[in-house]
């Protein structure tokens, strides 16, 4: 009983004072479905999508979400297969398909073991908050970060990933409504129109 009380007091203390730094990065789940918004800093656009993530066989499927009043906008499905280093881009209405070789290596949604701890804190405020931890690839006094990842402390779900590829390409991706496991593994199978896929990427806008 006394021990329980101590734990409760310690927990209450943590809530008031903020969070202790973790001993190391948490281990992110390997397979999940969810939703995301990717913000591209150069175009200033936010792109919403459903995502299925398979860190076991290195596949990602992104289904862009339709929105009203987007006259020139085409919506795509993207299937990334890193074991074969190809990406399929499928126009949702016509199923027109492009097959494009991937040039960047597989980069899982997780926190590399040697990451630099940045902060631990609560998202939200009193009465409604979620503990998260923030890591980066910064090397103190040697290198600015090109990646920052925010993950929930308890189950290590990704919350936000920010990448700076070079001076002109920075993206921030926010993840939410995540569910463990992949409900429909068929989402990683390209449609039959991809058997005669074109080799160049289709433009997002038609005018
Ligand atoms: C996207 O995900 C949401 C929430 O999980 C779901 O309700 C919706 O049906 C999904 N949309 C499509 C097109 O699969
Ligand atoms: C972690 O290790 C990788 C691979 O060796 C290296 O490229 C990266 O710079 C390291 N990151 C940090 C923050 O030390
Ligand atoms: C930045 O990276 C993007 C994507 O990798 C590439 O297309 C672009 O040419 C690069 N720009 C510069 C200035 O290096």
UniProtKB/TrEMBL annotation:
Keyword terms, alphabetized: Signal
From what superkingdom does this record's organism come? Eukaryota
> Which InterPro entries does its entry note?
Ependymin
Q: Which GO terms describe its biological process?
A: cell-matrix adhesion
Gene Ontology molecular function terms on file: calcium ion binding
Subcellular localization, as worded in the UniProt entry: Lysosome lumen
Question: Major place of localization?
Answer: other
- GO CC term (a single one): extracellular region
Q: For this UniProt entry, which segments traverse the membrane?
A: none
Per the UniProt entry, the signal peptide is 1-18
Summarize the protein's role: Binds anionic lipids and gangliosides at acidic pH.
Family named by the database record: Belongs to the ependymin family.
Q: Could you tell me what this protein is called?
A: Mammalian ependymin-related protein 1
Species annotation: Myripristis murdjan
Name of the coding gene: EPDR1
């Amino acid at each position: 009983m006394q021990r329980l009380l101590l734990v409760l007091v310690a927990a209450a203390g943590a809530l008031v004072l903020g969070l202790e730094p973790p001993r190391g990065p948490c281990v992110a789940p390997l397979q999940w479905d969810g939703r995301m918004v990717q913000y591209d800093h150069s175009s200033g656009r936010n792109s919403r999508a459903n995502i299925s993530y398979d860190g076991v066989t290195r596949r990602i499927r992104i289904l862009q979400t339709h929105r009203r009043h987007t006259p020139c906008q085409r919506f795509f499905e993207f299937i990334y297969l890193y074991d074969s280093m190809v990406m399929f881009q499928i126009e949702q209405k016509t199923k027109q398909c492009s097959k494009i070789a991937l040039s960047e290596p597989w980069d899982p949604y997780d926190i590399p073991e040697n990451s630099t701890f940045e902060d631990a804190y609560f998202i939200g405020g009193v009465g409604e908050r979620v503990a998260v931890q923030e890591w980066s690839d910064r090397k103190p006094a040697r290198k600015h970060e090109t990646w920052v990842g925010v993950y929930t402390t308890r189950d290590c779900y990704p919350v936000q990933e920010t990448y700076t590829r070079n001076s002109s390409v920075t993206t921030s991706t926010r993840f939410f409504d995540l569910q463990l496991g992949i409900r429909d593994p068929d989402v990683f199978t390209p449609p039959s129109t991809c058997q005669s896929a074109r080799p160049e990427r289709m433009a997002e806008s038609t005018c």
